[in-house]
Amino acid sequence: MIEPRCESLQWNAEGTTMNRSALNASLICLFFFQSATIGAEPDHVEVRPERINDVLVNPNMGFADFHMGWHCEDAGMTAQQCAKMRNHQWPTNYPATAVTYFRWHWDQLEPEQGKIDFEYIDRRIQASNLTGQTLSFRVMAIREGGAGIPGWLREQVKGVEVDGTFWPDYRDPVFQREHRRFVQALGKRYDDHPAVDHIDIGTAGCWGEWNTACCKDPTSLIEIYGPANDQERDAISAGYKQVVGDYADSFQTTPLVMLALGSDDDPRMIDVMGYALQRGTGWRVDCWGDFGIFSGNWNHHKNLYPAFMDNARRVYPRFDDVWRHAPIQLEVCGTIPGWKDKGWTADAPDGNVHQAFQFALKHHAAVLNAKRTAVPEEYLPAVEDLLRRNGYRYVIDRLEHPRVVRRGERLKVASTWSNLGVTPSYTKRQLAYRLRGKADSHAFNSDADVRTWLPGSWELKETIQIPDKLPAGKYRLEVAILDRAGKSPETRPLPPLQLGMAGRNDDGWYSLSEIQIK
């Protein structure tokens, strides 16, 4: 007899565990059994599902669709129209996706004060859902050559105009009040919505990317306002922290990502980055794959990324563990066809494309925004290898249970699982078991939280109460990790997660073994 051992795990914001306050308030109780390999007894069934080598297509991971091909920009398009257009002009060799990524300016979403166009966002969420995807988004406040904030707000707040671009002053109390209200409204509607993958904090900087690169003479996010002294610089930094805090307060379940800051050793922006990490965000970087696109003497991989990471570790010592509870997102530099034009190869160990892909795996990247462009034929083997290892890849190594169980009794199922990927899944999903007979089937939910399933192996013991009135006979034991239906907007559950093993049925459940109910 294998005795269960129950551990209560409380996940916190320190990087070793899940960080969102909703999870901090709950205890996750999993039942483990001894790790020694034990052969099945004569009255027990043991199965070891065959692993597969397919590229899995699941939310929270893999290449991202980008604006669904920019076919859904018309404000009047329905979700069905948008979904129908999604595959139009699909790029050559671009992998199948389960995440789509949108960016909008604030003035698009709230043209009138207090009247947020939720319907516009809802339709894109529903369109993504209809195509089997979750949606992530960024809301920007800077528009190159104009204003990204609504006109009604532009008239009320201070700011500076640089090269025709209006930069709202993040110290302005009206801006702070209205930004907080706006983000709180987004959080109230979309936090923990199953069809929303993650939120990219993009209120500051050109294109929402926390820089001033759209200016003729780029400077820092602090100095662009021409501060007269350090007191003013500190106030600007505090304004940026409030932007981050507004999102962290409003989205306590849906994952957040924050663009990498502090690579230029600006202590105030390093501090803003540290604050974001402390509040539980993941991080993202632009120009993934830059080994010399802009300069022969400087590039993101050898210069910017190491400086960002070193500075982040100084202000947040558990930086290297952020991926355990929040996603890492990468966006390609230029386009992947542009990498080919540079003559870069995917050859190991020195090819620049190979090195970029290894960077993604080393740093536990989840979603990869490759901007929905063609993938050169010679890169395909490396892309497929990356996608087999990127994100999460759950498998059952071994499962054991009695051959026969009586109605009204408890069925004990002992299993060993592994995550062969480099991240967990970051959104709530339900591990479930199902007994499927010829005329009847019953599903049973597990208490396991798949967001805690880090790379590696673990052993789980489940107890399933067999209903008294379940008809006697032979049943298939099946397993699935299920999505949820969404409300406001209404979305359907996506198919169960793809697992890295054989046995998937047409409905997405995995058939494991046979059991006799008496």
Describe the structure concisely for a colleague:
The chain has about 525 residues and is of the alpha/beta class. About 25% of the residues lie in helices and about 25% in strands. Strand 5, helix 2 and strand 6 form a beta-alpha-beta unit.
Alpha-beta classification? alpha/beta
Helical element count? 12
Instruction: State the assembly state of the protein chains.
Output: single chain
Cα-based radius of gyration, to the nearest Å: 25 Å
The side-by-side strand order for the widest beta sheet comes to 4-14-13-12-11-10-7-6-5
The CATH topology of the largest domain is given as TIM Barrel
Mean pLDDT: 92
**CATH C-level class of the largest domain:** Alpha Beta
Q: Note the beta-strand portion.
A: 25-35%
CATH architecture label of the largest domain: Alpha-Beta Barrel
Describe this protein with a few key phrases.
single chain; 518 residues; alpha/beta; Immunoglobulin-like; TIM Barrel; 2 domains; 5-stranded mixed sheet; 22 strands; globular; disordered N terminus
Provide a descriptive summary of the structure in words.
The protein folds into two domains: 5-55 and 393-517, Immunoglobulin-like (Sandwich), CATH 2.60.40.770; 62-287 and 299-333 and 365-389, TIM Barrel (Alpha-Beta Barrel), CATH 3.20.20. It is 24% helix and 25% strand. It is built from twelve helices and 22 strands. The strands form five sheets. A nine-stranded parallel sheet has the order 4-14-13-12-11-10-7-6-5. Strands 16-22-21-18-19 form a five-stranded mixed sheet, with no helix packed on it. The longest helix is centred in the middle third of the chain and has 21 residues, at 230-250. The two termini are 22 Å apart.
